[in-house]
């Protein structure tokens, strides 16, 4: 047996005011769309904003459903819309923010596993990393240089 160590390099910013201006604008767009999320069941609202290489910004929020599994996360709402609207464009960055109507979320909220898998698909397709920034309602912001840093040992099309 040989141990296998997997490392990911992340960066932590103390607040939204520390991130680069262009990302701050993206995060503000994510916050705007977050507050209009349709989340009557969880009361946990998430917003995501994507910057594409054609300079377009595509946003998404979580959309819940009385049949719970039929709902969709903010990140996938955004990424699938980007794929539908701008199929040729590469995704450069994604900003994610979450807010609960029940309590204050002051720690960075990472994307769920299913959204990481969905995002990695586009990273592989475009053969270019997607930078990801995530935060709570306020407080620290975490940056990863690639979705791959959040999803090691990825299952992708190379296995098929
Ligand atoms: N949610 C997201 O939109 N993104 C994530 O990465 C995690 C969870 C949504 C799904 C559901 O509407 C609510 O947050 C509670 O799980």
UniProtKB/TrEMBL annotation:
GO BP terms in the entry: nucleobase-containing small molecule metabolic process; pyrimidine-containing compound metabolic process
Residue ranges of every copy of the CMP/dCMP-type deaminase domain listed in the record: 21-158
Enzyme class: hydrolase
Catalytic activity entry: cytidine + H2O + H(+) = uridine + NH4(+); 2'-deoxycytidine + H2O + H(+) = 2'-deoxyuridine + NH4(+)
Cofactors: Zn(2+)
Gene Ontology cellular component terms for the protein in this record: cytosol
Record: active site: 75
GO molecular function: cytidine deaminase activity; identical protein binding; zinc ion binding
Residue positions binding Zn(2+): 73, 112, 115
SUPFAM superfamilies: Cytidine deaminase-like
Binding-site list for substrate: 62-68
Keywords noted in UniProt: Hydrolase, Metal-binding, Zinc
EC number: 3.5.4.5
Family: Belongs to the cytidine and deoxycytidylate deaminase family.
Function: This enzyme scavenges exogenous and endogenous cytidine and 2'-deoxycytidine for UMP synthesis.
Protein known as: Cytidine deaminase
Originating species: Christiangramia oceanisediminis
Gene: cdd
